[in-house]
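Checklist before submission:
- one chain only
- standard amino acids only
- sequence pasted in full

Submission:
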Amino acid sequence: MYTIEEVSEIIRADQEIIVDPGVVIKDLIYDSRKILQANNSLFFAFKGIRDGHLFIKDAYAKGIKNFVISNQHLNILTYPDANFLIVSDVLLAIQDLAAYHRKTFKHTVTGITGSNGKTVVKEWLGQLLSDKFNVYQSPKSYNSQLGVALSLWNLSNEYDLALIEAGISQEGEMDALEKMIRPEVGIFTSIGQAHASGFSSKERKIQEKMSLFAHSDKLIYPSENISSHFVPYNAVSFSWGLNKSDTLQVLEIDHSKIDKTLLRFRYEENVYQLLIPFADRASVENCLTCVSTLLSFGYSFEQIQSKIITLKPVEMRLQLKQGKNNTSIIDDSYSNDLASLQIGLEFLNQQQQHAKKTLILSEMEGLKDSQKMQDKLLKLLHQQNLSMLIFVGDRQLINPESLSYSFLQYNDTKSLVADLPKLAFANESILIKGSRQFHLEDLSKHLVAKSHETKLEINLKALEHNLQVYRKLLPKDVKLMAMVKAFSYGSGGVEVANTLQFNHVDYLTVAFADEGVELRTAGIKTPIMVMSPDESTFETLLTYELEPEIYSFSILESFIDFLVAKGRKAFPIHIKVDTGMHRLGFLAEEVKPLLVLLKKSKEIRVKSVFSHLAAAGEDSERIFSKMQIESLTTFANTLEKALGYSLLKHIANTAAIVKWPEANLDMVRLGIGMYGIDTTHSNLGLEQVNTLKTTVTQLKELDESETVGYDRRGKLFRPSRIATVKIGYADGYDRRFGNGVGKMKIAGQEVSTIGNICMDMTMLDVTDIQVSEGDEVLVYPDISKAASSIGTIPYELLVTISSRVKRIYYYE
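Returned file contents:
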């Protein structure tokens, strides 16, 4: 696309060290863990939570030879065959490059912003406009300062329409996005409460978002809450809403049909009816934005109706599901373009639980007319370390002999599904990438292991976010140990550990050796501490390089004897000290005899000395907590001095990271906070990781004389509507939630349990809300309140979610 010398000129590099001026830059890289194609890639060393300059060595080792940096003191001589461009601001550099590249696009760019609905509208428009245009759309939710730059980089004149998202969270951010995108057409989806704290007022928020369209020729927007005086003077406006002055005036919204909405509206003095396949308000509004856009692009109502009715809910995230026969299914079966394929392949490569990796890929819309795009696809596929590629489509795009892995092709999804018994997928990770027309979601349903409709969704992006929140609170030299015991607090050990390893945590901790074995066999290489070892697991500890917590003389002596018999030397152990928790650990007065044993035993080497704070979150116990910290430090210093080498010292748990910075020592142990629960109530901005959902199985209309559930405990005092949902105490939903104690949410409305909780079912009183069979139910609207209502803690609710509940992992 551009030579390195051209890039240097475009980004106005302050200094350049170019040893290979002819190299052409084709890919932009910002994360050394996500390198798919090293050749012709340019690495941008951003200074964020973690300094990108620290990963230049890793990127170089993986084949990257072109870098944009801001650290003028980097020892460039270490990389003699690499090109370096030195700038003052790396983010500004990549934005300048993206803005320059965008100017080379000769067709229409449509910019999409708003508080909500940006990604859904973009995805729907991509489908709706694909008959007339070869549409490029920014992948997933790439709408940030960096995401927009990466989106625009993949834009080429092989497309004739671009849909680009732009998202901001505070004042002053849109200017940089507008300079990059420069949309000819603007779409403002909505104005709401999202990121409200970043703006001085609602009006200022509208103005800031509207500045994306400062040079636009046309603007589509909802008139509710957005006055016409906010519209840039240069743009022809197309508003929709309830006002007579709106370009498209909504006259009636009819919700009488289940799961559908009938709209009646006026456009250009004519009245039309339109049936859309959604009932919720957000989807209706997003559909109206799409309808308005299609009208502004010259579509007739007849064309629009035939297209709108085919829309389906947008799955905006990669989903990782447990598959049959020990497989991991990465389901991204609703979208397929080069940019999203690359994201999917990056996620597939992160999965370490299986050595075998399979890609199931359908034809891409728009690819057939572009030889250049076909070449890009083939190059990407050739560089993958796959076991098998299964291609769905009737076009012969791929030459099997050019691949280093197995290849199969099916004309359609139905043929592939019919062949599943013969394919016999097992012990592998499978990425499913498909255009909607191929309905690869049908294939996904056949491959996923559990059909139980209660599911626990785990947001891996939120997990990463929470991890970074706590990292920001720590000095850079403090290590981080992540707690993944008890099936990662119910979230799933392997999948969570994979994400944590990918994010470079220093240690993982499990309760029992078999949990560690599961992680090791799934490809986890991060050091693992085992909290509850016993003699029966010693062999396992050695075989799988698991480091035991040593808390008593008996376990220490037994382990040393075992190591002597095996001839092992300097095996790492962790010494547990009882400073006041009085659960496990050596007491302060036992330090001398412990030292005697440690000094004479060459079979072991102490890696860390640690303890547990008994009341880190209690302000009333600050004196006691301080005493515990001092006791551990004294104990550890005594060991360190006598042993003659450095030991890691750690006592801080999640609460202490927030409330006890003096307890950081050499390492901290992050547990429940990583999963989005802040027991200190410190407004850290944590994101919810786990969401337990179920569905409505049946609805019943009962009069006030009836009762509900076992022992007739559910008494009715009015004619009532009762919903039975697919979760019970066998799924981990505590029986104490029965008889009105438990609260769930359906369509955003809170409802109470009625009657006793059954083994597999729970009944809810839904008399006062609109509910349909099959509706999704949020089991814990607020897990902290739910726990408090039955006198327990969120930990217990998470770890008791049954293994029969399907875990679905997704990365937004």
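Reviewer check: Residues 456 and 692 are 4 Å apart (CA to CA).
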